[in-house]
Amino acid sequence: MRPLEWKIFQKLPDENISLDNVLELLDGISRTEKKKSFPDDCHFQSDKYFAKQILQALVRYRLLKRDGSKYSKVKKAKPS
To answer: What number of H helices and E strands is found in the chain?
Structure first.
């Protein structure tokens, strides 16, 4: 997992996550920090591209689940 993806994941709410939530978080992140996580894409892409890539990666890592256009964090079962 890229450092930027982990940073965004930690700041997201548990439910009703949308593309706009991720875009708000990306507004506060510098261009150099994006370049560290996405070295090939940084110069030519918009924040919307990065938001989509981060959401897709988090779904692929099974940290988020998708419900239409909304996302929510996967609740992990605690071992008993």
So the answer is: 4, 2
